[in-house]
Amino acid sequence: MELDNNNGIGPEVEDEDRLSILVDDILLSILGRVDITTAVRTCVLSVRWKHLPWLLRELTIDVKDFLPVLQPNLIEAEHMDEAMSSLRKVARSFLANPRSEGAITKLHLKVYLINNYAYEIGPLLSEAIDIGILKDLDLAILDEKEISDCTDEQMLQQASVVNGFFSAYPSVFHCLTRLSLYNICFAELDINHLLFECCKQLHHLYLSNCDLDDRSVWKIDAPDSKLSVLQLNVCLLGRLDVLCLPKLQHLEWDTWLCARAPLSFSVVPSLKEICLICAASNTNRGFVLSEVLNDTTSIHTIKLDFQGEKLWLQPEGKQLTALNKLRKLSLHGIFVEFNLLWTLVLLDAAPFLEIFDIEIWEHPCQINDSMEMYEERPNPSWKVPKFASPSNLYMKELQIIGFKPLEQQIEFIRSVMQRAPILNTVLLKYDDPCEDCEKMGIFPPRPSRNCMFPKGEDEQDMVVNLLKDGVSSPARIIFDD
Fold first, then answer.
1. What confidence tier does 39 reach under pLDDT thresholds 50, 70, 90?
2. Whole-angstrom Cα distance, residue 103 to residue 99?
């Protein structure tokens, strides 16, 4: 070892001394940014680090951190079992021992309830909650089966496992603030009792591929619930009727198969954000947005994503009074051949809108896929009101993702600029094609100069001139490629 000429201290010792002088709060902040396996390994670095992982107040114990590094698309059962065995040991080391430095303020726990692990993890959680070690639990009960591969029997079995876990360890309900469930059929369970009466502290609920059997209507009437976020992913319900969720602020539903409106609201005084994402099939007749937003009073953000298929919104106009407090509107996945002027109907119904966000969908690689379900893309037939005078007096930003200087896009942007007298920014963004589109040779890889997105000052100046010709607007035109 090379010694320091001044004090005889080698570089390794000096580095260790530098770590030693850091206070616990800084070292814990470092540990809080790595996964739990890395955090535990640091205890062998030195005596100074030995006790630190067990002082962490917020923990993330994720079973996927214990899986082999290189994972195939389908995780093998033996790897899941090995990962859960390792997770059980880590969980025991943090939950089974008394903590002298205070309780765990938040535990993010992601597990597979396979084999008998429900009956090993359950007692650890239950005891930690009962003696006050654990105050706040974010629990995800994972399932690696693909949605398309799940059978009804498997979804019923998963429901039985989850129900058995909660029935055996009811203490888990007491501090459960976030719950994520996958591939479950609630046909034989009282879902409202489980999620809203037992989970009294639940704030965030995520359900993926969960249903009630036979596409039944799910009615939620939970006046005492604290639920503020509800996220549904491919949940094949007949409809969702939110009768009463007074704390609900954000609702997101990705993919439904309802022929008409997938949801309705009654008492939701706190609802501020709605996100609806769906590629409508030919059986989807669509619905009017006002039908869904009826009885909502405080929505300020709406995102609608059509994923490149036909619109599932039916034309309407003056009925859209629920948009009168809207601050941000995002319309994504609009098929590239669609006229954009129909969106002005929504724009004119939202006089306080500040941000308008449009995404153009262009994926030739997918146009011929699933033709039996998605073969019709009729151009929107909304009656667009004629421009009379500026109506969006608060609008500050217009964003177009997937911009190309096509006539219909130019006409749309000019129409927005006319309606928004204080519009500050028009952001025109390039949208990278996917790998399959590039392989087809239809889209040249960026940054090729053959793509239609304006490149260089000359092309961009030409677009700016087209947009501002005859239009009085202070808006800056910004190109983002």
1. low
2. 7
State residue 213's pLDDT score. Answer: 75
The share of the chain scoring above pLDDT 90, in percent, equals 56
d(CA 352, CA 348): 10
Torsion angle, CA of 59/62/63/64, rounded to 10 degrees?
Answer: -150
The tokens describing 301, both together, are 């953000």
Q: What is the pLDDT of residue 358?
A: 97
Question: Which amino acid is present at 94?
Answer: F
The contacts of residue 106 (CB under 8 Å, 6+ apart) are 57, 58, 59, 135, 136, 138
Report strand pairing: 263-267 vs 250-254: unpaired
Beta-bridge partners for 478:
427
pLDDT in tens, 268-301: 999 999 999 999 877 788 899 999 998 898 999 9
Beta bridge partners of 301: 273, 328
Residues 345, 350, 352, 355, CA torsion sign: negative
pLDDT above 50 (res 370): no
Confidence category of residue 44, pLDDT binned at 50, 70, 90: very low
Query: What distance in Å separates the CA atoms of residue 66 and residue 87, rounded to the nearest whole number?
Result: 7
Say how many residues make up the chain: 481
Please give the structure tokens belonging to residue 346. Answer: 């929504």
- For residue 90, give the nearest of 71, 77, 105, 109 by alpha carbon: 109
Tell me the C-alpha distance between 461 and 467, whole Å: 10
What count of other Cβ atoms lies within 10 Å of the Cβ of residue 182?
21
Query: Which of 240, 241, 291, 299 shows the shortest CA–CA distance to 270?
Result: 299
Q: Name the residue with higher pLDDT: 399 or 373.
A: 399
At residue 361, the pLDDT reads: 92
| Measured distance CA(311)–CA(346) in Å, rounded | 14
Average pLDDT score over residue span 31-43: 64
Distance, in Å, from the CA atom of 330 to the CA atom of 357, rounded to the nearest integer, reads 4
Query: Per-residue pLDDT tens for 174-204?
Result: 999 999 999 999 988 889 999 999 999 999 9
Encoding tokens for residue 464? 């700016």
pLDDT digits (tens, 9 = 90+) for 255-275: 998 888 999 999 999 999 999
Q: Helix, strand or coil for residue 161? A: helix
Distance in angstroms (rounded) separating the CA atoms of residues 13 and 286: 69
Number of CB atoms found within 10 A of residue 270's CB: 13
* C-alpha span between 88 and 79 (Å, rounded): 14
Q: Which residues are paired to 233 by β-bridges?
A: 208, 254
**Residue entry with tokens 């669609």:** 338
pTM of the full predicted structure?
0.86
Q: Write out the E strands in 250-292.
A: 250-254, 263-267, 273-277
Report yes or no: 50 and 43 within 8 Å, Cβ to Cβ: yes
Q: For the chain, give me the number of helices (H) and strands (E)?
A: 13, 17
